[in-house]
Amino acid sequence: MAIVLASASPRRRELLAQIGCGFTVVTSDIIEDNTQDIPPEQLVILQAKIKAQSVAAVVDRHDIVIGADTIVVLDGQVYGKPKDTHDAKCMLFSLSGREHKVITGIAVVTRDILLTDYEVTTVKMAELTAEDIQRYVISGEPMDKAGAYAIQGKGAVFIERIDGCYSNVVGMPLRKLAKLLAKVGVSVP
Q1: Residue 111: count of CB within 10 angstroms of its CB
Q2: Which PANTHER family match (predicted)?
Q3: pLDDT band, residue 35 (cuts 50/70/90)
Q4: What average pLDDT does the chain have?
Q5: CA quadruple 154, 159, 164, 169: dihedral sign
Q6: What pLDDT score does 112 carry?
């Protein structure tokens, strides 16, 4: 039995390594669809589950696969990863000076087990100037991040406060993940 992360995200790999979780990575070819007309909490669970199940189908039957999906929600609008620099700038202008929710769904899957959960964290972003946004987008950091910012990177300077789980904003709610892993007999750390 091995733990497999169904994600190409370097941040998720860093978070799992941080808690001493031994794992391998098998990326899923599932394309996220944030346009589905379902509540955001259900959306992230569905996408995490689909990613994990697609990888579980190709690894050993007893391997434990972890899938995750993170989105940002503001006024009912779902923000995933920006499509291009213009999209990143639009997202950051929308989030500027406002509170938003970061929601991550997680799935722990084997061929016989499916466990899911999600976490919601409220984040307050500072007022950003056009120059702040331009400089940040030019750095390239926003391009593969939900909501076009990285709280664990340069984007940290834009965050006034968070209410909830920090690791959730990075991309993996570690406490919730540990609880799901415990249900399948895996203790971390």
Answers
A1: 14
A2: BIFUNCTIONAL DTTP/UTP PYROPHOSPHATASE/METHYLTRANSFERASE PROTEIN-RELATED, BIFUNCTIONAL DTTP_UTP PYROPHOSPHATASE_METHYLTRANSFERASE PROTEIN-RELATED
A3: confident
A4: 94
A5: negative
A6: 86
The count of C-alpha atoms lying within 13 angstroms of the C-alpha of 99, restricted to the half-sphere facing its C-beta, is 7
Using CA atoms, how far apart are residues 146 and 143, in angstroms rounded to an integer?
9
State the pTM of this model: 0.93
Q: Which of 122, 139, 44 is nearest to 88 (CA)?
A: 139
Per the CB < 8 A criterion, the answer to whether 72 and 147 are in contact is yes
CB 62 within 8 A of CB 1: yes
Give the pair of three-digit tokens for residue 52.
Answer: 């994990």
The domains found in the chain, sorted by start residue, are 3-183 (3.90.950.10)
Catalytic site residues? Answer: 69
Query: What does the block give as tokens for 126?
Result: 């500072």
Taking residues 5-21, report their average pLDDT: 93
- Give percent of the chain above pLDDT 90: 85
